[in-house]
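Write out the 3D structure for:
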Amino acid sequence: VQLEESGGGSVQAGVSLRLSCVASGDTHLTKVMGWFRQAPGQEREGVAAHSPGGSITRYADSVKGRFAISRDNAKNTLYLQLNSLTPEDTAMYYCAAGAAGGSYLAARSYAYWGQGTQVTVSS
């Protein structure tokens, strides 16, 4: 499975961005997919996760009510809508796939990773 993220950028606080992650290859292996982020000097943090049918969604407390994860299985694409961005949201955002159990906000649950897309929010 190959994952390619896009949609990051440098924005002012309060605006919105939408990240996309396109999966290719053995897409039947993607299972639960998620978004993670990592700021310099910090550990990778689980942001949101979404099962193929949507019965499972998870959000980190830090983004609940501001971020929304969605998935278009026909396009093999995972999205993350980022609203009301703050400088604390500045990080490299990674797409992950292949989780079949465990904690869906834990990096160890995922088998496949993209290269990341940078989000920088200035005040």
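The two ends are 37 Å apart (CA to CA).
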